[in-house]
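Reopening this ticket.

The earlier resolution said the output was attached, but the attachment link was broken on my side. Pasting everything inline this time so it's all in one place.
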Amino acid sequence: MWSLKIKELAAFALEIARFVLATAAIGVRLHASMVLPEFHGIEQKLKRSHENILNLEREIAAFFQSSEYPSVLDENKKIIKEAAEYHQNRPVPLRFSVLAGEIIHHLRSILDHIVWHFSEPSYREAHPRWIEFPILESRPPKKDLFTSYERKIKGITKPVVRDLIDRLQPYSCIDPVDSLLLVIHNFDIADKHRELVFVVGTGAIRLPIEVMDRYIRYKWGVPDSPPVDFGAEYQRHGDIVPEIAFSEFGRSQSEPIVQGLSDLQNYVVEIVSSFDKLR
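Inline output:
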């Protein structure tokens, strides 16, 4: 993935811009929607996971900056091959896996916190260990319905809340394996027993901040902001930088971890916002 065709550059750069816009939006949504004290713990967990994503991003950048090949130009195929082999054989610091695991755990616990919030006090007191946000890839058979799903949300009496939990289930998706909820669930389980598995086999296009700023201004409809030709900008200014990726992310075999964690974070923010409206 180190050598990219020009026709792929625009899509790749759009992903970068999407990350910039998504991360910027997190703080706005948090401030706007989570103002009541009952969800204060959720708000703090979201802020903490967002801080950890930014910290991880900085540490990964420093890790590659100290390498022999912090970036390469697409013009020299020999150097690209050497850089790819160098980074693929370079051990990924265990700390990155630990930080990513902490982020995943925060996101998973936020979901459980939602179910706890909507559960009746009597059910909380009687069955505190049963309460959690169910996440199921397939709809459970009748014989397993209580233990794998129903008892976890039995304390919730609002039909609209129970309905939303059901609609969010991976089994309600077109492709359950690609459900971000299932990705969070599987990562959280994996992190409890072993470190999350990363690979260094992807390359990302780096463009000057000024280019991305022009794109964002155009995207938001700022007057006199022309569209950005990412292919031309890459030819003039761009280079390829190494990235650390999850070895598995749903059906994807290589998802950059900062982008992936940001997508999971934003998805949980949307979920929290949906439940916040039902209180």
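Reporter confirms the inline version is readable. Confidence is low (pLDDT under 50) at residues 1-37. The beta strands are 198-206, 239-246, 255-256.
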